[in-house]
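User: My collaborator and I are trying to settle a disagreement about how two of our proteins should look. Neither of us wants to argue from intuition anymore, so we agreed to look at predicted structures for both before our next call. Could you fold the first one, then the second, and keep them clearly separated?

Assistant: That sounds like a sensible way to settle it. I'll keep them separate. The first protein:
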Amino acid sequence: MATLRKRKNKSGKIVYLVDFYFNGRRFVRSTKTDDLKTAKLVLKDIEAKIAKNTFGIDEISPKRKVYLKQFEREYLEYSKTHKARKTYLADKLSFKNFIKFVGDRTLNSVDQRSIDRYLNARAEQVKKSSVNIEIRHLKAAFTKAVQWGYMEKNPFKGIKLFTIPEAAPKFFSKREMTQLLEIIKETWLRDMVVFAVDTGIRIGELVNVTWSDIDFQNRRIRISHKDDFVTKTREERIVPMNDEVFDLLVGLKRNGDYVFSTTDRSRMDSDFVSRKFKRYVRALGLNEEYTFHTLRHTFASHLVKQGTSLFKVSKLLGHADIKTTMKYAHLAPETLHDVVNLLSFQSEPYSGLSVVSKNSQISTG
């Protein structure tokens, strides 16, 4: 139970205090007011939090001086458990670069000025798009610091990122895809490439597809969460399989739970798959920027070029926002003519005469 009592502050002014117990510990908190009515409202708020057990760390404990390296260790432990490996590695790199620049200071000493200085200095070392990615990872980390009660506000909120002109997505032509499939020696890699380019799924989703996700009867693939895998948008979706994927899956020999697995029946490593694929891209002398993810762009780009609506492509790709899909819009400009040609507001040829009602008057002045 919480109670109110009075106390004089250093200036001799009377203020009301709330005296209460929480989790077996006694706390005394100032209401910062000498108005009894206002103090009673603060008292009721504290009593409600006690009843609901909703006190945060910052409300029941004195502020602790938490340093960046200490927080880095705690957050990366959380990231490794709750996020995809690729995201965890990006979190780790972001902390490393940031601490190298600002030093091992307390979290509360990190302000927007120090972040802006880091932003500009880092932009001289790497691409601005890479800096933006690091800032986003650090912003997410400091949001967690606020939730953990280490600080009251996230200093990364309000930081203006670099404006990056969005480049048109690169994709393989049909000829390049044919060349790749002809040169790839490993059957398992060729199968994964076909599966990826015919479904548009991400590599993280690809290596996590299990046989239980395959619905042969309805020709559908469920992109689902696993114990150690969560989809990028945190939503599950259904991807239809075309004839090529259906025939591929029917002909595959099952080796454990995963559709694409190693010889010891475990899940394929996405980084290993990406590196193997990149070697063949280089062997053909193709664009150095082409990666395994380019297969996803290829899937979307060729569908749009053939007239598939951006809305449908967005659904197939699992985009959380159709704005992300708009980067493919330039590939189908000719379809716009098909749309406007559907309109016709004149049933007969224009005669040059206008129809005027009897009651209407035309002013010549």
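The second protein, kept apart from the first:
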Amino acid sequence: MNILITGSCGFIGKHLQKALYEAGHHIYGYDLRDGLDIRDLHELDKWFELSQCTTVIHLAARAGVRRGNEYAHEYMTTNIEGTWNVGKMCEKYGCRLISFSSSSVYGNANPPTKEDDPKNPISLYGMTKLMGEHIVNQLTIPTVIIRPFTVYGEDGRGDQVFYKWINQYKAGKQMTVFNNGRNARGYTYVGDIINALVTLINMDWDWIHEDFNLGGQEIITIDSLLTIFMKIIRDSKCTFLNRPGSDIPENYACIDKAKEILNFNPPKQFKENITNIIRKELNINA
């Protein structure tokens, strides 16, 4: 199968490319790091024609809740205009579309969050991702919206909390902890996300538009994460700060729908996975 991945050099994109290549698919990557911008409709059109793809996985986005308020134009044009462009090219070339949204579209919902819960984003980032969902749901080709919940894993983004702590520790700084460590997340291992995507790609779709929340089955507080971190690095120190207004205190998914349709049943291995990642990043032997 010919598959085009936007955002192919990003955190999830790198893991996904490897898995799909090993599964025998022909992968075409489209990423800003290679000078390929989803806002450039002319260039995007050329890549759709070149790849003759039948499935598109749309990962390209400006990500991060806090930075969205600082760089509003970049977020709005990339996440909204860029998604419009990708969707229209999928219509033109008759491709299936798997488009990544975000759990941020739910705002301060009461978890565990279900797919049909109200969408009331409280951040500009969440607003742009919700607008992207509206665009996808108006397309005339089969689509799936994926809402991942706090994805973590090897080679993660630097703005993810434990990577931020690792970088602060390496720089000799104190680790910054918000809301006294009380925030809670349903952390989702990137490998489990990839497995769900592979299942989805290999399925015959009997829908026009569908959506799935993909989240972990362990609810982890920042304080619990900090405890794991400080057991590994005993000389680490931290500073506690007030929670930013755009942060959501609790955020985790109801995955009943994904369990039923995608056989999505992630194992409870958060502590083991995080410990291995921290040790690897800091070159600490077990």
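Some points you might bring to the call about the second protein. The first strand starts at residue 2 and ends at 6. The two ends are 41 Å apart (CA to CA).
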